[in-house]
Amino acid sequence: MKNLHGSVTIGLREKETNKVIAIYPYTPDENDSDKDIEDKVKFWFYQQSCSAEEKLKECYVDVIEQSELVH
Prior knowledge:
The protein has helices spanning 34-46, 52-56; strands spanning 10-14, 20-23, 59-63. It is an alpha+beta fold. It has one domain. A three-stranded antiparallel sheet has the order 2-1-3, with helices on one face. Strand 1 (10-14) and strand 2 form a beta hairpin.
């Protein structure tokens, strides 16, 4: 995991493949620690569906580079 603090685009990646599976739709608060940001992203993803809790076990929060975003 990269340093999340100060990042613009954050999301979730699969641990095994490093594939981006979700983009967090909010800009992290500049006063949040990496742990706070990670908790907010996971909580947001968990709220999206019933199966999200199981999927979160296979994912980690990371910075998403502009080049990885699909236009």
